[in-house]
Specification:
mainly beta; 2 helices; 2 domains; four-stranded antiparallel beta sheet; Lipocalin; elongated; 60% strand
């Protein structure tokens, strides 16, 4: 009779099992041929598979670490709680307030940082620069007058019928953040927190002009409002990854308290000659800032072991007591001080691209 190798191995396994249990041949339990083959297959697999020591535990609070850089394309519209461009004075003492109607504008924001792979700590530097202006102009119709920067204490440009009046408001902001951060990552997202310092330089400038019907400049004025300050900042972000996807959603918030100095300067010129000049300085000014982003995050490894990312978000900013370029002359106010009172906000979208390496 012919016996195969597997049959002989099966018999050997049965014999060894009986000896190991200390049982006699009569006590050995008969098993099927298929069960013996299963035991042989299990033994073969065990012999063929090398013993591998347990891997060390993975710390989910860290990533690969290293440097990263991002360019954030910020498209926002400035909003002011009060930003008068002109007063239109009609018959019988009627008055209409005209304000600057700002458009959405582009501004860049750069960020560079480094994350320690061991504990998730690191640093980052962020810089945002906004520099744009808005113009309002009109030909004064019969029966009305138009005041640019209406202010009875310092005077202003007053356009009469046939004149062309214009007002230009420019806003320039430079914002630098230097922060220490901690990033805790998990399989489905992560949390980042940071503290640091913010430096801000803000310049607002209003220029008014009156040109008569013959094209001769009769009046022009200039009001400049600037703020420079530094203070603490704190930020936090939560990221949630979508299952089996490179995509995720995130929300982040940042707050700052800025301590600095505000300067206001006003000049009025009639036919080129200085008619009035006023300066006001406040060297103990406080500005509160809140920023919020909500959006989507896409990250994907590259062939060179780097990681590229894309972010699209809705962004809102609030700057308390940031002021405006023009003082509101309504309600009998006769000083330029209240140009510091209005609040400033930004609302728009951001598109960021970057690389981790």
């Amino acid at each position: 009779m012919h016996f195969g190798i597997k049959s002989l191995l099966a018999a050997a396994v049965l014999g060894l099992s009986g000896l190991a249990s200390g049982a006699s041949a009569q006590d050995a339990r008969l098993v099927s041929y298929e069960e013996l083959l299963d035991r042989v297959a299990a033994l073969e697999e065990e012999v063929a598979t090398p013993s591998v020591p347990d891997a060390p535990p993975v710390d989910e609070n860290t990533d690969d670490g290293g440097y990263y850089f991002s360019l954030e394309n910020v498209f926002v519209t400035p909003y002011f709680s009060q930003n008068t461009s002109a007063f239109v004075n009609g018959p019988a003492g009627s008055r209409t307030i005209r304000e600057f109607d700002w458009d959405m504008n582009y501004s860049p924001r750069f960020e560079i940082g480094n994350i320690n792979a061991c504990d998730g700590t690191g640093w980052r530097a962020r810089y945002w620069h906004f520099d744009h202006s808005q113009t309002e102009s009109a030909v004064v119709p019969a029966g009305v007058t138009v005041n640019i920067v209406p202010n009875t204490a310092v005077g202003g440009v007053v356009g009469v019928a046939g004149d062309t009046v214009s007002a230009v408001h420019s806003l320039r902001m430079s914002v630098l953040d230097m922060e220490y951060l901690r990033r805790d990552l998990t399989e489905d997202g992560g949390f980042t927190a940071s503290i640091g310092l913010r430096y801000t330089r803000m310049d607002q400038h209003l220029r008014g002009r009156r040109v008569d019907a013959q094209g001769v400049v009769q009046q022009n004025n200039s009001q400049h409002h600037d703020f420079e300050g530094i203070g603490p900042t704190i930020a936090a972000e939560y990221l949630k990854r979508f299952d089996c996807s490179y995509w995720g959603a995130f929300i982040n918030a940042r707050g700052a308290l800025l301590y600095g100095e505000t300067n206001l300067r006003y000049d009025l010129r009639n036919a080129g000659a200085i008619a009035n000049n006023v300066t006001d300085t406040n060297d103990q000014d406080l500005m509160k800032v809140v920023e919020l982003q909500i959006g989507l995050d896409y990250r994907r490894p590259t062939a060179s072991c780097h990681e590229m990312f894309l972010r699209v978000a809705l962004e809102a900013q609030y700057w308390s007591n940031a002021g405006s370029a023009s003082a509101d002359g309504s309600g009998g106010n006769t000083s330029i001080d209240n140009a510091q009172d209005p609040d400033l906000g930004f609302l728009g979208v951001t598109i960021a691209t970057g690389l981790d390496w």
